[in-house]
Every structure is written in structure tokens, then in C-alpha cells.
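Propose amino acids for all 142 sites.
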């Protein structure tokens, strides 16, 4: 069955809308709307200006988002993206690494830091695509 999902950021390649996906994932996990807002933010190695100089559009996603909840804030950094395609073009592998900081300002708690890696492999064969996904997470003590 072909995917007919409209692209939110159309251009020559597919770009993940991390702000939209982050809100959808967190609200779905909670079973209700818990996210007050999500926005892309500049960080020293990935700013809106540098992204546009690299050919991205003015509204294309950046690699870092800030998520606001009632009484808490979460910052998610993409720390690494790696991918490869097999020589025959039928296998794609990708690795996305993130660092998440979660804080409750004024609550007197130290922020939590979590590193995660998502390893994906997709194989095209006989008109279909099959895939494997591996999730790795590391909670850092403070």
C-alpha cells in the first residue's frame, strides 16, 4: 500500500518534522495532551543561519527542539546522524543518536540526562520493504 502522507517540509529529500513527531510521541505515550509547546532552537553547531547557508529552507527543521510541559522543560539534541546504502541500493541503514535533558525548574531536582540511539535497517525486495529497529537508551546518574 503506498504511503499518501503529505510532507510537512517538502523539498528534494524527506526531512523529519521533529517538533511535530516529538509532540505526537509524548502525547500518545501519556494517553492525553501533555505537551504545551515544541519549538526548534539554535545551538552553536546548528543555527537557522547555518542551515540556510547549507541549502535548507527557512522553515526546515533544526536538529534541536525544546519541549515545554506544565512545570517542566525538555531539550532534545540530535548528536549524530549516520547512514549508508548497500551497493545494490536495496538496503538502507541509519543511526540517529540523541541526548535529552529533562528539568523541572524551581523544583529543586537535578536535571535528568538520557542518551539514546535508534538503529534502523530497511530492505527493499519484491515490491515491499521490511525493516528492523533497535533502540538503545542510557540514563546518566547526576
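Proposal:
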Amino acid at each position: 500500500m503506498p504511503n499518501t502522507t503529505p510532507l510537512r517540509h517538502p523539498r528534494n529529500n524527506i526531512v523529519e518534522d521533529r517538533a511535530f513527531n516529538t509532540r505526537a510521541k509524548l502525547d500518545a505515550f501519556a494517553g492525553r495532551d501533555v505537551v504545551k509547546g515544541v519549538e526548534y532552537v539554535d545551538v552553536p553547531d546548528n543555527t537557522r543561519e547555518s542551515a540556510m547557508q547549507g541549502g535548507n529552507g527557512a522553515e526546515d527543521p533544526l536538529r534541536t527542539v525544546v519541549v515545554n510541559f506544565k512545570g517542566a522543560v525538555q531539550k532534545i539534541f540530535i548528536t549524530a546522524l549516520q547512514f549508508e546504502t548497500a551497493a545494490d541500493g536495496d538496503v538502507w541503514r541509519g543511526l540517529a543518536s540523541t541526548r535529552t535533558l529533562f528539568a523541572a525548574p524551581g523544583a529543586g531536582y537535578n536535571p535528568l540526562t538520557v542518551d539514546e540511539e535508534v538503529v534502523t535497517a530497511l530492505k527493499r525486495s519484491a515490491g515491499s520493504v521490511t525493516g528492523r529497529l533497535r533502540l538503545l537508551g542510557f540514563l546518566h546518574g547526576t
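The CA atoms of residues 3 and 128 lie 12 Å apart. The radius of gyration is 17 Å.
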